[in-house]
Design brief:
By secondary structure, the chain is mostly helical. It is built from 13 helices and three strands, in the order H-H-H-H-H-H-H-H-H-H-H-E-H-H-E-E.
């Protein structure tokens, strides 16, 4: 039953992706990075916003400012998308200009009040969206611009002068959402750091001998394959020095394994100080060590 449900769910998802492929269109692989993803998100939100104008037009005359916005901003969103496609490398100036435009258009549309007041919701979308995509500096910048825009509406718009409590609530909501998003970004950053540390620990456990802190046998085999391949390409030679400790078993039997461990650590430290940084010095067995060296020039 679970397998059948999973297959039906997969087919339904595939159908929705073909009909409404926003998930793929906004995905990191499809978009070529978060910069392009942000540009595509803006274009989609613009289409939604203009669609809202179309829905309201039969019930109320659209102000000239709204009509101008419905014409100019989609062209801007499309031009920005093309610019990011042509020049994907981000710049602070371009991002700052985009934040300013995104917040100004939401503030300007909301200025007219009435049904257009709902467009203040785009202020929350742009501030939190910019912050989650690009980090705290952009979050704070977007919030500051949005708050300034709402303050301007409270001063200049007749609608918002009558709805001052509503406007103040929106400003407080912007501050609260920014604080929450900032905390979330901090926790995400902390989680990423912890994850990186754990990955490093796992890699060390996988490639490092825990007693001597030298590379272990799996690492040596991987490194040997790499050096042999490089030597074949460059026409160079590789030298392999393998040695063990005579009488090591007697040390363990007479003095104990703790003394044997200290002996291994001492040998690893002393030999390690004398090998080149480019060489690979590894412990491949109980008392077996190996030094892998690349010979740059054949002097024979």
């Amino acid at each position: 039953m679970d397998a059948v449900s999973a297959e039906v769910s997969a087919r339904r998802k595939g159908f929705l992706d073909r009909v409404f492929p926003l998930g793929h269109w906004l995905g990191a692989e499809a978009s070529g990075g978060i910069e392009m993803g942000q540009a595509k998100t803006r274009l989609i939100c613009t289409v939604v916003g203009v669609g809202g104008f179309a829905v309201m037009s039969p019930f109320a005359a659209l102000p000239n400012g709204i009509i101008a916005t419905a014409i100019v901003f989609p062209l801007y969103a499309l031009a920005y998308l093309i610019l990011v496609y042509k020049r994907p490398a981000p710049t602070h100036t371009r991002r700052g200009f985009a934040i300013l435009m995104d917040n100004l258009v939401g503030t300007f549309v909301a200025y007219f009040g009435g049904g257009f007041a709902v467009y203040v919701g785009f202020l929350f979308l742009t501030t939190v969206g910019w912050g989650l995509r690009f980090g705290r500096p952009y979050l704070f910048l977007a919030t500051a611009i949005a708050i300034c825009g709402m303050v301007w509406n409270l001063v200049a718009s007749p609608y918002w002068q009558e709805q001052s409590l509503f406007g103040i609530t929106i400003i407080l909501g912007l501050i609260a959402s920014t604080v929450n998003a900032s905390i979330l970004l901090g926790r995400i950053a902390g989680g990423n750091r912890l994850l990186a540390e754990k990955i490093e620990e796992v890699l060390q456990l996988a490639w490092q001998d825990q007693l001597t802190k030298l590379p272990n046998r799996p690492y040596f085999r991987e490194r040997l394959a790499q050096m042999l391949a490089a030597a074949a390409r460059n026409g160079r030679q590789v030298a392999l020095l393998l040695f063990d400790i005579d009488g090591f078993k007697a040390v363990n039997d007479t003095l104990g394994h703790e003394a044997g461990d200290r002996l291994l650590q001492e040998i690893a430290e002393r030999v390690g100080r004398r090998v080149r940084q480019a060489d690979t010095f590894a412990r491949v067995g109980g008392d077996e060590f190996v030094i892998l060296m690349e010979i740059a020039h054949d002097r024979s």
